[in-house]
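[stage:ingest] chain + small molecule (alpha-L-sorbopyranose)
[stage:ingest] validated
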Amino acid sequence: MTKPLRIGMIGYGFMGRAHSNAYLKVNRFFPDLEHRPVLQVACARNAEKTRDFAEQWGYADVETDWRKLVERDDVDAIDVGCPNDSHRDVAVAAAKAGKWVLCEKPLAMNAAEAEEMTRAVEAAGVPNMVWFNYRRVPAIALARQVVEEGRVGRPFHYRATYLQDWTISADVPQGGAGLWRLDVDVAGSGVTGDLLAHSIDTAMWLNGPIVQVVADTETFVKERVHQETGQPQPVGIDDACMFLARFANGSMGTFESTRYARGRKNYNTFELNGADGSVHFDLEDPQYLDFFEYARPSTGTKVEDHLTGWRRIHVTNSEHPYMDKWWVPGCTIGYEHTFVNALADFLECVEQGRPFEPDFRAALGTQRVCDAVLESAREKRWVDTGVEPSE
Ligand code: SOE
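[stage:predict] done
[stage:export] C-alpha cells:
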C-alpha cells in the first residue's frame, strides 16, 4: 500500500521544475517506496505564472500566499523552492504546522537563520532535507564509497572548483525573476552561498568537517541595473571567492569559485589525494569517476609499479550507486536524476527510521563554513568555522 505525500511547492523557477520532476518520477524508478508524492498545490506570488506552472506540471491547486499554504490540511510536505531570503520564515512556519520540509540550498541567508530553522524542524520532529543534489550523482556517491572502503588512505589534499561564466557582462541586471542570485538582499551572498555551498557540502561528506578557513573575494562589476526598478544599484555579492581550508582530519583544502570563468558553464570538480589513492570528479563529464590506486586496503599491499595509473570508471554498472534503478550498463543518467535519487533516499530513510543526510543540521554545518569564508574575506584573517561534529 502506498501513502500519498501531498506536496506544497513554493516557487516555479529552475528548482520548482527540478523538484516537481523528482516528485513525478520517483515511484516509477524506485517502486519499493511506501510514499507516493502528489503534486497538490503550487504557490508563488505571481498568480498567472503560478497557474501556468501548476497546469504544466499537474498541480491540483494554486496559492499566492505561502502562509496559507503551510496551514492547509490537504498538504503534508512543504518544498521551499523560493529565493533564499524567504527560506527561514517558510521553513520555520512549515515545521510549526507539522509539515515535512524539503528546502533548496543554501539552507539560509546565514548561519544564524540556519540555526533557527534547524531548531524549528528538530523541535517539531518533522522529516527534513536540503536539496544538495550533487551527493546523488552516481560517480560522487561512488567516490564516497571508495573513501569509506579506505582506498584513499590518509588524506592530504582536497581541491575543489566551481566555475561558471554567466554574469561576465556588466549589462546583466541584478534582482527579480531569474536574476535574484545577483541581489545580495535576496541571495545573502554570491558564489559562496550559491556554488561553494555545493562544494563544501560534498567536501565535508567525503573528507569530514572543515575547521578553519582563510578567504579572498572579489566583485568585478560594481554596479548593475535592478531588473525591477531599472535603477543602477551597487552590487553586494561576491562574484568570485577562493579559500584555503583545514579539515579536522589534518588534510588541507583549496576551493575556487567564480561566475567569470569564460567557457565554464557548471564546472564543479573535486580531487582528493591520500597516501593510498586519489579520486577525481568533473561535473562536465559526470558519468566518470577517476581513481588512482596505489595500495590495496584489503591486503595493505602496493599495486605493482608497472600497473599503477589513473583508472576511468564509467559509473553505469548496476553495482554502482543508484544505477540498478535506471538503465542497463553503459546508458547514462544526468542532472535531473540526481534530484530523483535524493528524494528516493530521503523517503527511504523516513520509512526505515534511518537518519537522512543532508538534513537541516548537516546543511547548518555548510552554512557555518560559508559564513566563516565571508568573514575571513572581510577581515583578511584565518577564521574558525565552529562546525560541530554532529553537523
Ligand atoms: C547557479 O547558476 C546554479 O543554478 C545554482 O544555483 C545551482 O545550485 C547549481 O547546481 C547550478 O547553478
